[in-house]
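Lecture notes, unit on protein representations.

Consider one protein chain, 67 amino acids long.
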Amino acid sequence: QIQGMPVNGRPDNLYEPVPEEAATHGMFDSRAQARSYQLWANMHRPLVAAAVAGAAAAAAGLVRMSR
C-alpha cells in the first residue's frame, strides 16, 4: 500500500516513534474489508479439511447409491 511517494509535512517513524497517535487509515480505506473468509479458513484448516473430506465421502456415497 505504500506508493513510494513521500508526503510533505507527514511525520514518519524511520528513526524514532511518531510523537502523535497514528491511525490505520489511508487511501485504501474504500477497498478495506471487515472480514476475510480466506483468513478464517487458513486459521481453521483441520475443520475445513474435515468438511471437505465429509463432502467428498457424501458425494462418493451418493454416486455409489445411484449405480
